[in-house]
Specification:
By secondary structure, the protein is of the alpha/beta class. It has 22 helices and 14 strands. It folds into 2 domains: 236 residues, Periplasmic binding protein-like II (D-Maltodextrin-Binding Protein, domain 2), CATH 3.40.190.10; 185 residues, 3-Layer(aba) Sandwich (D-Maltodextrin-Binding Protein, domain 2). Helices cover 47% and strands 11% of the residues. The strands form 5 sheets. It has a 5-stranded mixed β-sheet, with helices on both faces. Strands 10-7-11 form a 3-stranded antiparallel β-sheet. Strands 4-5 form a two-stranded antiparallel sheet. A hairpin with a 2-residue loop joins strand 4 and strand 5. The N and C termini lie far apart (52 Å).
Length: 566
């Protein structure tokens, strides 16, 4: 088998041909072996039909493996086929991955597209879109996982899935059959405004509650220079305004930094989202009257210098450098912003007191934000594979047993301390409760305050509790401890409040017209938004953009989305 693994790794370098040859020859390296022994057969049946039953012999499965840079931060000598996750999975259910290909980011998606087009899949792999699942279903290339889901998804994992309502199950059900196992994209809540409180204190400024408060604070940061950044040769302040990414707003996937969604929400606008308007119609949020009003306001902020006037030239790396070097004291970002870029900023300057604030978007003091796609990745199993239940069993082991039964595992604790990435797992996904952030925050907060026993925390919560406790107790705090406390306690306490409303994003698939026109319409949208914000075009240009957007496929796409939602 070692020779087989070496051969598999070599074949990756051969591209399509190598992958195809390996898949053709290795459909099931160690599948079911007939045995008349009654005990053996009973154990095999238990393994096939329960979440945690162990196979009587090691079952090897071929895997398309998503990886990451720096070996996913795993300890030295750990690999994608031999690490804390694979060893534990083998010890519990006795299965082992044999990676057909290992690739990260876009190269992984390219490899997935290749094996789909060849019609020759590894036994198990993760795909990155619902469209790919549909393609595989229509081609008859993947297994029906209904029985596997019913038998081998643990009760706790089932409750995690159910916390998203019917949305997750609906996304993987075709003609009444569950054809893939979804990951979960937990609710990140609204973006917060992150501000240099040490600068605010120096200037005697109160904490913000509205966007007007934020604008006032940023103006003072620039004009009064609490960071002592001075001016350039032309007399322009070196302190910049709100850091903004050229994407301007987020799409319907994971949360991102340096975006202006909260400002748009102040006007009831949700760009890049398919939402329901007041008339009960599905509309694309980038082309509404509310979006136009928001853009006009954002242009005024740009003209006042409240938004960094060089944002069109910035990369995300450059923005992070501004923050780390103390040249920027304000940006909108999610709860996890302390991990990146703020941990580096605080490490470089421990006096930089970055704090999060929740901004009201509505007149009644509540904060509205659009929901995210509840699932971005899907686990699929090759049609005809002898043990399709393995996928469900691994999900149950990784996201139930590891987290709730391995709280004393030094190996897994070490993984969290090393910030080992999720790509170290055989299945590079996450499964958790929809409100996992609030659950984690409340459990850690209760433990810190003495209302809960630390031994009752699950593995992830315990790792964050330990870091937060060290932050509270120690005079010499590390940036990692600071990041854990600021994200998991300070930021999450804000997004766990009751004065937050969710506007549902309704559509995450690709219509027929989108396949040929969407990339062009997205480029047109980005160009129009940037031109209006920067003043290259006045606000009347928005009407021209909307007209052309509709004429060039947008209206047809809107009709397709509406029809699919009936």
């Amino acid at each position: 088998m070692n020779r087989l693994k070496q051969t598999l790794k070599k074949c990756v370098a051969f591209g399509v041909t190598g992958i195809m040859l390996i898949l053709a020859g290795c459909k099931s390296p160690a599948g079911f072996v007939s045995n008349d022994n009654e005990e053996y057969n009973a154990r095999m049946e238990e393994a096939r039909t329960t979440p945690f039953g162990a196979y009587p012999e090691t079952i090897e499965y071929t895997l398309g493996k998503m990886t990451s840079v720096n070996n996913s931060n795993m300890p030295e000598n750990d690999t994608y086929t031999d690490n804390a996750y694979t060893r534990y999975i083998k010890s519990v259910i006795n299965v082992q991955n044999v990676d057909v290909f290992e690739a990260n980011d876009s190269q992984y998606d390219t490899n997935v597209s290749m094996v789909i087009s060849m019609g020759s899949l590894p036994d198990i792999m993760v795909v990155s879109s619902q469209d790919e699942v549909e393609q595989l279903v229509e081609a008859g290339l993947i297994e029906d996982l209904t029985e596997s889901y019913n038998n081998c998804i643990s009760d706790r994992i089932r409750k995690m899935y159910e916390s998203y309502g019917d949305s997750l199950k609906d996304m993987v059900t075709y003609d009444g059959k569950i054809m893939a196992l979804p990951e979960t994209n937990i609710t990140d809540g609204p973006n917060l405004v992150w501000l240099r409180k040490d600068w605010m204190d120096k200037l005697g400024l109160s904490e913000p509650h509205t966007i007007d408060d934020v604008v006032n604070i940023v103006k003072h940061f620039i004009s009064e220079d609490p960071g002592n950044n001075g001016v350039d040769a032309s007399g322009k302040p070196n302190t910049v305004g709100l850091a903004v990414d050229t994407d301007v707003t987020g799409e319907c996937g994971y949360s991102s930094e340096f975006l202006l969604d909260i400002i748009f929400a102040c006007f009831g606008a949700y760009p890049k989202q398919w939402i329901m308007n007041d008339d009960g119609e599905i509309v694309y949020g980038s082309v509404t009257d509310e979006a136009k009003e928001a853009l006009s306001y954002i242009n005024s902020l740009y003209n006042q210098g409240v938004i960094d006037n060089d944002f069109l030239l910035r990369t995300s790396t450059n923005i992070c450098e501004l923050i780390e070097n103390g040249l920027c004291g304000s940006f909108f970002g999610p709860w996890w912003a302390p991990n990146n870029p703020l941990a580096n900023a605080v490490s470089r300057n421990p006096d930089a007191d970055w704090q999060p604030y929740l901004i009201a978007t509505d007149s009644d003091g509540t904060t509205s934000y659009h929901s995210q796609n509840p699932c971005y990745k899907y686990v699929v199993v090759r049609k005809g594979y002898e043990h399709p239940e393995i996928a469900a069993k691994m999900i149950s082991v990784m996201f139930d047993k590891v987290r709730f039964d391995c709280t004393d595992s030094e190996e897994f604790k070490n993984y969290y301390q090393l910030n080992v990435e999720p790509t170290a797992r055989p299945l590079s996904i996450n499964v958790d409760y929809n409100n996992a952030l609030s659950i984690c925050y409340r459990n850690i907060d209760a433990t810190i305050s003495g209302r809960k026993n630390p031994d009752s925390l699950e593995l992830l919560e315990r790792s964050f509790y330990d870091a937060c406790s060290e932050y509270i107790k120690n005079a010499n705090k590390t940036s990692t401890q600071w990041a854990a406390y600021m994200s998991r306690i300070k930021a999450c306490s804000l997004i766990a409040q009751d004065n937050i409303k969710v506007v549902d994003s309704l559509y995450f698939k690709t219509t027929d017209t989108m396949k040929s026109h969407w990339w062009r319409l997205k480029a047109k949208e980005k160009e129009a938004y940037l031109k209006i914000i920067s003043g290259e075009e006045d606000i009347s240009y928005f009407d021209r953009f909307v007209k052309e957007w509709n004429e060039q496929g947008g209206q047809t796409i809107t009709s397709e989305v509406s029809e699919s939602m009936k």
